[in-house]
Write a structure and sequence with these properties.
The chain is mainly alpha-helical. The chain has one domain. Helices cover 49% and strands 11% of the residues. Strands 1-3-2 form a three-stranded mixed sheet, covered by helices on one side. A hairpin with a 5-residue loop joins β2 and β3. The longest helix has 16 residues.
Length: 196
């Protein structure tokens, strides 16, 4: 079930989309495409996902993923996204939370103290979209790689395209494209492994 890298996970999710829709790998992905891949994926146990975005979350938390496991091995997920976010950040936060569908079991937080520590780390962050919170770092980088794979970004940058052009070509908000195409984020997701 586990994936060794953000790249391997992204390639798997893009292949699931290609098999279902015929849409080529490497093109930008939307929340609904990632959701469908999470449900269709034979490498996780998620059988149903509920999505909630009509209520505010406590600052500065932008999203939350909850997994409920049944005795028969199936998992049910709930994704919560802060209603106060701009639409483009809602999309990113939702995809980031969906990445937890593929989180390795040893990264699950299942105790009250574990949840307190996670929330404490998130609240201490000034910017919720930097990969500095250790417990959420993998989800941020995995979401960036799935939304637009590093090899696609590198090709565009080599051709001299700016963030606005990249965003337009892949139907992404400019702010999201700018964040996921930043050099530090690009290198971290290109070289990083899951599970940390």
């Amino acid at each position: 079930m586990a994936f060794d890298s953000f790249v391997e996970l992204s390639e798997h999710i893009h292949a699931l989309r290609a098999a279902k829709t015929g849409r080529a790998s490497g093109r930008g992905m939307s929340f609904y495409e990632v959701w469908a891949a999470a449900i269709d994926c034979p490498r996780n146990s998620i059988s149903e996902i509920r999505f909630f975005d009509k209520k505010p979350l406590p600052k500065p938390i932008s999203g939350l993923f909850v997994r409920l496991e049944s005795n028969d091995g199936r998992s049910f997920a709930a994704v919560y996204v802060d209603s106060k976010l701009d639409d483009h950040w809602k999309e990113f936060a939702a995809i980031k939370e969906l990445m937890h569908c593929w989180s390795p079991g040893h990264t699950y937080v299942g105790t009250q103290q574990g949840v307190r520590n996670l929330v404490g780390g998130m609240v201490a962050e000034a910017d919720p979209y930097t990969p500095d919170v250790a417990a959420d770092r993998s989800a941020v980088l995995a979401a960036a790689e799935v939304i637009l794979p590093h090899y696609t970004v590198e090709r565009h940058l080599a051709q001299g395209h700016d963030f606005q052009q990249i965003a337009f070509m892949h139907n992404l908000p400019v702010q999201v494209a700018k964040m996921i195409c930043r050099h530090d984020i690009l290198q971290a997701r290109k070289l990083g492994g899951l599970g940390g």
